Amino acid sequence: MTPIRRQQGSTLVVALIMLVLLTLFATSSFNTAKTNLMVVGNMQGSVEATNIAQEAIERVISSAQFGLPVTANAMRSLQATLRWRF
């Protein structure tokens, strides 16, 4: 039969190991969640930029002056629209 003091010491060691493993798991989970949020944010920004560029292309193509040299006023109008979006 083993002494009670020796059994209590081994329980403490096992509990500390489990606590360390649980802490590592929680830290890893938080880091993964943070990375996923950053990826989603970047994807949303990319999609929004693509949509804005597509809208600018469609505006230029649908304008009555398509094919003519771009005037300074038309360019300023387009730049103002893009600045308003961001």
Task: Give a concise summary.
The chain is mostly helical and 86 residues long.
Main attributes of the structure:
86 residues; mainly alpha; 2 helices
Number of domains: 1
The main β sheet shows up as: none
Order of helices and strands: HH
Strand content: under 5%
Quantity of strands, as a count: 0
Mean pLDDT across the residues is 81
Helix fraction bin: over 70%
Number of helices: 2
**Class from secondary-structure proportions:** mainly alpha
Quote the distance from N terminus to C terminus.
75 Å
Which parts are unreliable, with pLDDT below 50 for 5 consecutive residues or more? Answer: none
General shape: rod-shaped
Q: What is the CA-based Rg, rounded?
A: 30 Å
Describe the protein's architecture and organization.
There is one protein chain. The protein is an all-alpha fold and 86 residues long. The chain has one domain. It is rod-shaped. The N and C termini lie far apart (75 Å).
